[in-house]
């Protein structure tokens, strides 16, 4: 009988998680990886996380929440979760709930490490070392605070609505 387990190692400052004897990816080892990744970040490790899914044949949607949490931790520090050696059946839940675009999928572990090195070098060139999450968040929050022309137009339209007035043509009020 297989005893699924998580194996982690740090290579060039990047955390690599592998699931051994794990045909079905369950929540427990993924949550364990999240704890290890959080500790890795707290100790100044690179915010790129490489997850090697070789041997995993099935991943249910229950693990997606934890994977998304790890992705959020990585992105908040300028990093990314990179999945490699992913079986097509394992990728299905990502496609079903339309979150595959939040992760990077690569064929081999070497490709994942090359991408992680590239991202770390780019972050270093921008002056963001990943160990200082405030700098990465600061840049992100500046972007999210800006209001584009469409958002400004919606604010102007919705700023003084008259009771009973129909919403302007082409702008939905959300009440239908």
Q: Which features does this protein show?
A:
176 residues, alpha/beta, Transcription Regulator spoIIAA, 5-stranded mixed sheet, two-stranded parallel ribbon, 18% strand, globular, disordered C terminus, Sulfate transporter/antisigma-factor antagonist STAS, MlaB-like_STAS
What does this structure look like?
This protein has one domain: STAS domain (Transcription Regulator spoIIAA). The chain has 176 residues and is an alpha/beta fold. Residues 132-146 and 167-176 have low confidence and may be disordered. It contains 6 helices and 7 strands, in the order βββαββαβαβααα. Helix content is 44%, strand content 18%. The termini are far apart. The chain has helices spanning 27-42, 64-75, 88-96, 109-125, 133-145, 149-159, and strands spanning 5-11, 14-20, 24-25, 48-52, 58-59, 80-84, 104-106. α1 packs parallel to α2 (64-75). A 5-stranded mixed β-sheet has the order 1-2-4-6-7, sandwiched between helices. Strands 3-5 form a two-stranded parallel sheet. One of its GO terms (molecular function) is anti-sigma factor antagonist activity. InterPro entries: MlaB-like_STAS (IPR058548), STAS_dom (IPR002645), STAS_dom_sf (IPR036513). Residues 123-176 are annotated as: Disordered. It comes from Isosphaera pallida (strain ATCC 43644 / DSM 9630 / IS1B). Residues 1-116 form the STAS domain.
């Amino acid at each position: 009988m297989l005893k699924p387990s998580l194996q982690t190692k740090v290579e060039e400052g990047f955390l690599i998680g592998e699931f051994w004897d794990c045909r079905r990816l369950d929540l427990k080892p993924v949550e364990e990886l999240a704890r290890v990744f959080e500790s890795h970040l707290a100790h100044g490790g690179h915010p790129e996380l490489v997850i090697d899914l070789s041997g995993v044949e099935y991943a249910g949607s229950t693990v997606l929440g934890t994977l998304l949490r790890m992705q959020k931790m990585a992105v908040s520090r300028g990093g990314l979760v990179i999945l490699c050696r992913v079986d097509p059946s394992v990728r299905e839940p990502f496609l079903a709930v339309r979150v595959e675009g939040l992760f990077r999928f690569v064929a081999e572990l070497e490709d994942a490490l090359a991408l992680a090195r590239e991202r770390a070098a780019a972050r270093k060139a921008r002056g963001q070392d990943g160990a200082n999450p405030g700098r990465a968040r600061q840049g992100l929050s500046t972007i999210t605070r800006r209001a584009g022309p469409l958002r400004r137009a919606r604010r102007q339209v919705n700023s003084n609505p008259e009771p009973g007035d129909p919403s302007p043509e082409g702008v939905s009020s959300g009440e239908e």
